[in-house]
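Suppose you are handed a protein chain with no further information: no name, no annotation, nothing but its sequence. What can you learn? This example shows the usual starting point.
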Amino acid sequence: MNLITRSGALRLFVRARTFSTAPPPRLRRLGRVLVLSSALTTSVLGYVFYNDVSNIEPAPFDTRTLSDLLRAYIVYGTCSIAPLVDAAPTILDTLFSIPGVSKIVESFVRATFFHQFVGADTANGALPLLTSLRAENKGALFAYAVEVDQKEVTGQTNMEGQPVHKRIIEEIIRSINASADFEDGRDAFQDGHIGRRTWVSVKLTAMLPNAQSLINLSTHLTNTRAQLEPPVLFPGTPSPSDLSILHSSALTGTLTESDIHDLKELYSDLVQICTRAEERGVRVFIDAEYSWYQPAIDAFGHALMERFNKLPSNGFLRTWWDISSWTSSSARKSVDDRVRPLVYVTYQTYLRRMPAHLTHSLALAHARGYALGVKLVRGAYHPYEVVAHHLARSADSAVGSPRSLSISPDPEPPVQPSKNATDQCYHDCATVLINVISQDVHRSGRFGAPSIGVFFATHNWTSCESILEEIVKKGLGVVERVGVNEVQEDVVRIPLEVGERIAFGQLYGMSDALTNYLIGRTRCERPCVIKYVPFGALVQVMPYLSRRAIENKSVLGAGGATRERKGAAALIWKKMKGLVVS
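A reasonable first move is to predict its three-dimensional structure. Written in structure tokens, the prediction is:
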């Protein structure tokens, strides 16, 4: 096997040599690296496979095919090699810059990392995947995974002369239409837009000409927001007046006329996106990003929630006439079936401002009369935040060192000091949110408009078990015994009114064992487990794939990629033994 791989890599290198009778030193060195790394990787994966299959049991409820498992094993085997993962962006940039070699690398990346982590090149192209996920009782959160390098694209246009960020906005709207069309074709009889489980995610830094405008707004908000008691640590917490500067004639020292123009246009584009989403019954999730963007992102997110998540003026309960009218399909048209919450904002528990920021957000939403949409995550930028903060506060930063983007005024980094602190914060926030959901359900009943919606985005088994336990403890779910004879198990039955307020989620291509376990452990009228499904052309999503490989270390935790690899190996071995027996 090693000889075959070695000779195959050598043949590729020989082909690369045909581009020049005297190949440059860089290409010769690259050929040697390809040969050695190919042989080494194959040897390592072949060695560890034997250990993997003998040290772990295959996960239950896993429906992946043998080809899917083989791909997952290769991807996570690669991700288990930390130095290779850290060097991946540089390696890929180099390989893609070499004629001939770039096509080979592109084919390899598409067959492995792209198909592992990306749904398709386009939203419509991902529809077969959505059908497959729904057949397994999984929903989907669409994300156009184009990450813009602001140094390269500021002022840039595409072939039609259209600004790059405007093309991204059009793709987001297309993904909303694709999501709604998919749901429209699922069921001829639905309660309006209630129960839909195909949603859309947006990333604000990709939606304006220069992301520096968001940093400038964040700096302005950090300097001008009123102090709270008790205080909320950086990046702070939103205020209803945050976006008033966009309508003021007085400029500040941090915001330029160009910033104001671009930020106004961003808000207008976000309103266009959310209006279309409201018309089609598709929830919109605003991604969290680095802390230097977060004050601005929070400001836009809460402004959109106040506009699109507004609760009925006549209270939480619909009238008896509205409820009884659901028995008539024609009368159902008059029912207020708007999705609530429509807009969700991401809360990162690795930030030290939590849970104070969450507590303030709950109070603000209640005072302003809108439903709070919460996507609860741990966060994936911890090492970058620490480095940026220390660089910004270093005395060397003023004498030729790389400029830090950090804008935190606090002496300590904005992130938690340890993984354990982040885990505890996630648990505390989840407990608070489930308690709020319990109060909301008991107050508004089965047909009331939700004043809270929570998407628990986590790859942590302990967190998922804890959340399920808390759901049962608060009376939001009932434990039932299902199965026959010796094969029985406990499941948590979640009623529709709770299912409209709660969902679990994992990234597509990651933690499939946990996703399938949650599906097996819960029963609900609509899918309550969602996969985050990125889409985009391979060249466009390369930054996402590079970041995903690196972030596997923090998203999955210590040894996470290794566990994924071993789980795939155990299932491969199980399927191979089944083929031999049959």
